[in-house]
Amino acid sequence: MLTTAPRGTKDILPDTSGHWQYIEETAYTVCRTYGYSEIRTPVFEHTELFLRGIGETTDIVDKEMYTFTDRGERSITLRPENTAAVVRAFLEHKLYAGPQPTKLFYMGPMFRYDRPQAGRYRQFHQFGVEAIGSKGAAIDAEIIVLAVQFLRKLGLNELKLNINSVGCPQCRPVYRTRLQEFLKEKVTAMCGDCQSRFDRNPMRILDCKKEACTALSQGAPQMVDCLCDECQAHFSQLKDLLTAADVEFVLNPRLVRGLDYYTKTAFEIQYSPLGAQSAVCGGGRYDGLIEECGGQPTPGIGFAIGLERVLLALEKQNLLPQAKNDIDLYIAPLGENAQAPAFRLLCQLRQEGIACDMDFLNRSLKAQMKYANKYPAKFVAIIGEEEVQQNKVMLKNMETGEQQLIDMDTIQQQFKAERKG
Ligand code: ATP
Ligand code: MG
């Protein structure tokens, strides 16, 4: 117990943390290009927020939340996703009073009691974007293009963008009734989950991954055929804009949400080489959510990308950058008397922004050289008894093997010159 992390969690060790930094920096760069600013919210919130903001008939709220009572008898939940928290912060800090739309992004750990397997963990990381305050289809197109560009920038090309419209509270009830009518006879042969979805959230039946259920819902009426004029126009504008941006998409009528505050655009990006867990990005419009959370009616749209799945995809395609740990200089003190001058030199050079390290284990010269080579270090500065007395160092170029005795005081200039040359 003491030496294993909890099931479904993962340590990110030094050999892979560079990959995470690479993905995170790519996300920062893309968001800056699109005018999205970072927001960081707490990793836990009042449970009520997620009950409202995600909806009680979803898998997340039904069976995946990490909920506990804290010492003050409050019900607290580790965030399973971040849209609700962003909306809470948007309202709490009156971000609606600033420039509109409010364009935000976030990155960080999420927590779900999922069944751990490749691409599915209990603590995982999402990069997400939310644009609050615009109801036009252009902002939908913008964030979809942003997600696609982020994934392409990392080198992922075999992307499949699925889009659908889930309508709005005007047109959806009509569809819901038509769908229930169609499923009425078939639902008894479906899985237990689908049976309980029939009354509570029949659209989710279309989303069931079980083969039997998928087969039975074949030929079901489609939401896109029941859209009201406004939703219809919005959806066709979105398709025009994606086409104008050269982003390919497929219409997927099974992409549903089914909660009242999810409206119009729903989309998902799949990376099929990942197999069962191929969804890397899920997103959509939530024009009713802000009101549901206690604000004025305000439209919004966002997506979340699962970074573990992105990392798996990059690994599969050999697209991850090589780890770089090399340093400019390794300082090798020999003997007690060399410690202080070596350490002073180390501190001075680091202040100058020169990446360097020194021996902290009193190793022999041979062992230190071996260690420096492993790093690898471009140069080694050897400081022995004699060097201490003369206030000099023996600078060795590890590439050419050349050695040069130089003044301790001038090593900074010397070293910088060597580095440039
Ligand atoms: P799935 O159908 O795979 O469970 P989801 O519908 O629960 O996905 P969303 O809530 O839309 O997923 O979250 C957006 C993205 O976050 C997903 O596309 C996926 O990449 C990632 N994700 C979701 N749950 C997990 C998890 N348990 N472990 C790792 N990544 C996850
Ligand atoms: Mg899930």
UniProtKB/TrEMBL annotation:
<dbReference type="InterPro" id="IPR033656">
    <property type="entry name" value="HisRS_anticodon"/>
</dbReference>
<dbReference type="InterPro" id="IPR015807">
    <property type="entry name" value="His-tRNA-ligase"/>
</dbReference>
<keyword id="KW-0648">Protein biosynthesis</keyword>
<dbReference type="GO" id="GO:0005737">
    <property type="term" value="C:cytoplasm"/>
</dbReference>
<dbReference type="InterPro" id="IPR004516">
    <property type="entry name" value="HisRS/HisZ"/>
</dbReference>
<feature type="binding site">
    <location>
        <position position="130"/>
    </location>
    <ligand>
        <name>L-histidine</name>
    </ligand>
</feature>
<keyword id="KW-0547">Nucleotide-binding</keyword>
<feature type="binding site">
    <location>
        <begin position="261"/>
        <end position="262"/>
    </location>
    <ligand>
        <name>L-histidine</name>
    </ligand>
</feature>
<feature type="binding site">
    <location>
        <position position="112"/>
    </location>
    <ligand>
        <name>L-histidine</name>
    </ligand>
</feature>
<keyword id="KW-0436">Ligase</keyword>
<dbReference type="InterPro" id="IPR045864">
    <property type="entry name" value="aa-tRNA-synth_II/BPL/LPL"/>
</dbReference>
<dbReference type="Pfam" id="PF03129">
    <property type="entry name" value="HGTP_anticodon"/>
</dbReference>
<dbReference type="Pfam" id="PF13393">
    <property type="entry name" value="tRNA-synt_His"/>
</dbReference>
<protein>
    <recommendedName>
        <fullName>Histidine--tRNA ligase</fullName>
        <ecNumber>6.1.1.21</ecNumber>
    </recommendedName>
</protein>
<dbReference type="GO" id="GO:0016740">
    <property type="term" value="F:transferase activity"/>
</dbReference>
<dbReference type="InterPro" id="IPR041715">
    <property type="entry name" value="HisRS-like_core"/>
</dbReference>
<feature type="domain" description="Aminoacyl-transfer RNA synthetases class-II family profile">
    <location>
        <begin position="1"/>
        <end position="333"/>
    </location>
</feature>
<keyword id="KW-0963">Cytoplasm</keyword>
<feature type="binding site">
    <location>
        <begin position="81"/>
        <end position="83"/>
    </location>
    <ligand>
        <name>L-histidine</name>
    </ligand>
</feature>
<feature type="binding site">
    <location>
        <position position="126"/>
    </location>
    <ligand>
        <name>L-histidine</name>
    </ligand>
</feature>
<dbReference type="GO" id="GO:0006427">
    <property type="term" value="P:histidyl-tRNA aminoacylation"/>
</dbReference>
<dbReference type="InterPro" id="IPR006195">
    <property type="entry name" value="aa-tRNA-synth_II"/>
</dbReference>
<dbReference type="GO" id="GO:0140096">
    <property type="term" value="F:catalytic activity, acting on a protein"/>
</dbReference>
<comment type="similarity">
    <text>Belongs to the class-II aminoacyl-tRNA synthetase family.</text>
</comment>
<keyword id="KW-0067">ATP-binding</keyword>
<dbReference type="GO" id="GO:0004821">
    <property type="term" value="F:histidine-tRNA ligase activity"/>
</dbReference>
<keyword id="KW-0030">Aminoacyl-tRNA synthetase</keyword>
<comment type="subunit">
    <text>Homodimer.</text>
</comment>
<feature type="binding site">
    <location>
        <position position="257"/>
    </location>
    <ligand>
        <name>L-histidine</name>
    </ligand>
</feature>
<dbReference type="GO" id="GO:0005524">
    <property type="term" value="F:ATP binding"/>
</dbReference>
<dbReference type="InterPro" id="IPR004154">
    <property type="entry name" value="Anticodon-bd"/>
</dbReference>
<dbReference type="InterPro" id="IPR036621">
    <property type="entry name" value="Anticodon-bd_dom_sf"/>
</dbReference>
